[in-house]
Amino acid sequence: MPLPRRKLFKFGFYSLGMLINNILGANLKSQAQANSLPRTPKQDGFYFPAEWHPHEYTIMQFVPRQNWAGYGIKQARQDWATVANTVSEFEPVLMVVDPQDRVIAKKLLSSSIELVELPLNDGWARDSAPLFVINDRGERRVTGFTFNGWGAKFPPYDDDAQLRARLCEYLQVPCYEADLVLEGGAVTLDGEGTLITTEECLLNPNRNRDKSKEQVEQILQESFNVSKVIWLSKGTIPDPITDGHVDGICVFIAPEKVMLHTTDDLSDPNYQICQDAKAKLLSESDSKERKLEIIELPLAYDVAHINFYIANGCVIVPIANDPTQDDAPLSIIRNAFSDRKVIGVSGEILAKGGGGVHCITQQVPMI
C-alpha cells in the first residue's frame, strides 16, 4: 500500500502550507485565468483520451532536492531515471529538469531524452504537469486546473503550480483554465465519456472547500468532456499526502474494464475500503450504459502495483522486489495487457514518497 510521503506531519508543514495556499493560490489562479481560453474543452469539442490511446511522448519531472533531502534523493533520482529510460525505449520522453540539476540528470538519463530546464519543487508529473485534451480534427490543448501542493502540504510549491503554464508556453499549446484544485492522479478515464474519482480527494476542504459535489462534477464534465462521473468514497490508506487519489485504488484499463486493488485480509482497514469501491463500481454503468467488469489486483504492503503507466506497447509497473508481493499482481497485469510488454521497475522509493510509476509520468496523446 502507498506509504506516507516523507513523514510530513512530523514537520508541521500543514498549517503553514494552508496560510501560503490562501495567499499564493489566489495569485496563481488569477495569473492563469488571465492567459486561458475563454470556453471549456467540452464546448469546443475536446476530450481527454484514455491512457492507452497512442502517445506522442511522455512528460516527466526530474526529482529535485527540495522535498527529498534526507529521504534518499540519490536513489530517488536513480529510480526516476530508470522509469524515464524504460519509457524512452517505447516512446519519446520530455524531462523537465530544474536548472541546478541538469548535470546529474544528463548523467543518469538516456541521451535520447529531451531535457527542458524549468524551476521545480518536486517530481510528480502526474499531478503538476499539463493534462492534454484532443479533438477529432487533430488538435491538442491542455485542460487546466489549480495545483496547490496536495492541500498545501509542501510549501513552497509555486514552481510546480506554474509548471503547466510554463510548459504550455514552451510547447506552444493553448490552455483552458478551470476553477478547481485537481491533480492528475485524482481521476481515471475511459476516453469514452466516463471518469472515476474519489470524494475524499476532490471534496476535501484542503482542495475545494467552497464547492459542492454537484459543482465539482459539473466542472469535471466540462473540463474532461465526460457525461458520467463515478464517485468512490475513499482511496487506500495510509495516504496523508494525496488524500485518496484514485490511481492508488483503481484504473480503467479498457472500455468497460476497471482494475481494482482488493485484499483478503479482514484486519486491514483497506479491506472495507476496497469492498465498498467494488460494490460501487459494480452498481454503476459507464457513459454508454454498459456495466463495468472488475479485475481484482491483490494489494501489497510495500508498493501499489496498480499505480502503473500504460505507454506505447508496454505497461511499466512499480514492484517491491519481493516475489511474494510481486508475482501475483504481475501475472494479473500481464493477462490484462496481453498485447503489451509488462515491465517491473523498483517502486519502493516511489512508494515511500507516496506514489508509483503512474504518479511520475504524464502522457501526451498523439493527434
Q: Beta-sheet strand percentage? A: 15-25%
Helix percent reads 25-40%
Number of separate helices:
13
**CATH class category label:** Alpha Beta
Supply database-style keywords.
four-stranded mixed sheet, alpha/beta, disordered N terminus, three-stranded mixed sheet, 13 helices
Explain the layout of strands and helices:
Blueprint: H1 13-34, H2 41-44, E1 55-61, H3 73-88, E2 93-97, H4 102-108, E3 114-117, H5 125-128, E4 131-134, E5 140-143, H6 149-152, H7 158-171, E6 188-189, E7 194-198, H8 199-202, H9 205-208, H10 213-224, E8 228-232, E9 250-254, E10 257-262, H11 270-283, E11 293-298, E12 309-311, E13 314-319, H12 323-336, E14 341-346, H13 348-352, E15 362-365
Parallel strand pairs: 1-2, 2-3, 7-8, 10-11, 13-14
Antiparallel strand pairs: 1-15, 4-5, 6-7, 9-10, 12-13
Q: Could you explain how this protein is built, in words?
A:
The protein contains 13 helices and 15 strands. It is of the alpha/beta class and 367 residues long. It has one domain: 5-stranded Propeller (L-arginine/glycine Amidinotransferase, Chain A). The strands form 5 sheets. A 4-stranded mixed sheet has the order 3-2-1-15. A 3-stranded mixed sheet has the order 6-7-8, with helices on both faces. It has a 3-stranded mixed sheet with strand order 9-10-11, sandwiched between helices. β4 and β5 (140-143) form a beta hairpin. Residues 1-23 have low confidence and may be disordered.
